[in-house]
Amino acid sequence: MRLTKATDYALRVLLYAASFPERRVSTEEIAEAFHISLNHLGKVVNQLAQLGWIDARRGRGGGLTLARAPEAIGIGEVVRAIEPDLHLVECFDGVRNTCPIVPACGLVAPLAEARRAFFAVLDRYTLADVRPTEGSPREEKLIALLGA
Fold first, then answer.
1. Is residue 45 part of a domain?
2. Which of 5, 27, 40, 49 has the most crowded CB, counting CB atoms within 10 A?
3. Residue 80 in contact with residue 119, Cβ under 8 Å?
4. Domain count of the chain?
């Protein structure tokens, strides 16, 4: 399964915000750190705010921060909410399916099982599980990579 850029960017925004809980981070800062278009990132940030995962404020003293504890933000939940189409193949889409062999196809069951397994793994993790912990080698690497 391949995730869209929007989902990738959403996870990055959440990870970045979780890595700096002591302050608000700006979309400009995130865009620069990840080399992402500010326009595209703005759309992702708006969606994350609408979904209740971040608190975004404009203007002086603005920026964004997590609206929920990292332990309350499930990775599988984020992927499901941001991905526009979770159908691995056309036949999973009951509305747009035009495949004539669906009734006789042996691929539907294994592909459905693979999708369930994919989300079963993601559902075991929260943002708290994947963010670097304070003073950890992962935190030091992330800060060095992001130049924060």
1. yes
2. 27
3. yes
4. 1
